[in-house]
Amino acid sequence: MLRSRIIPCLLMHDGGLVKTRQFKDPKYVGDPLNAVKILNEKEVDELMFLDIDASALRRAPNLALLRSLAVESRMPLCYGGGIGSASQAAQIIALGFEKVSISSAALARPALIREMAEMIGGQSVVVTLDVSKNKLLGGYTVYSHNGREKAGVGVLEFCQLAAELGAGEIVINSIDRDGEMAGYDLDLARKVRATVSIPLSVLGGAGSVDHMQELIDAVGVVGAAAGSLFVFKGTYRAVLINYARPGRLQ
After folding, report:
1. Against a cut of 0.70, is the pTM above it?
2. DSSP label at 212?
3. What is the C-alpha to C-alpha distance for residues 11 and 24, in angstroms, rounded to an integer?
């Protein structure tokens, strides 16, 4: 039986970990390998690494670093950033990662989703969509390359297409709420959940375990992903790698 997952999402930049606000102003928060060592002890459901340089700079994944992370980790791992082919995805799975996430490459060539699903299994293929709400016209805009380029597709339509092509999971990442710690975009989460039946994770906005519980209450079984919540402590955002979960999970 599926249950909700609580997922730290860590951003890699220049070999270290950073946290952004609305995809801007990256603040250094630590070393990736050290974070894995800490979270190993926290019984984490799943850990997601996103290399925010790789796709934006059109650079291949750092396989040496990923190998080190996989060797150290005792929890399921997902990696995204710079993956442009099914063979690259297979290399990362072979290192010990359970899932790979694609975003810009999937938007540019949706057939890649099917190619990856056929090579590594749909359960290992995650499609992550970075979205921003259009405050004047309503609706949402999907962006690629770390929020730098408009993708020209509808978020719900692409979620449906990704599912049809064999993706095993959708991750919706809110650019507007990134790092704000004011709560998830529950309206968007509900719309995506009503559109696709495959596993869904939501990222962007969590500032407390109550926000995660609100998401779970709103959409049912879901991956509640967060960055700031798991790397900052207190009003002044002191860096502290940590892990917490709501008191009741579906």
Report:
1. yes
2. H
3. 12
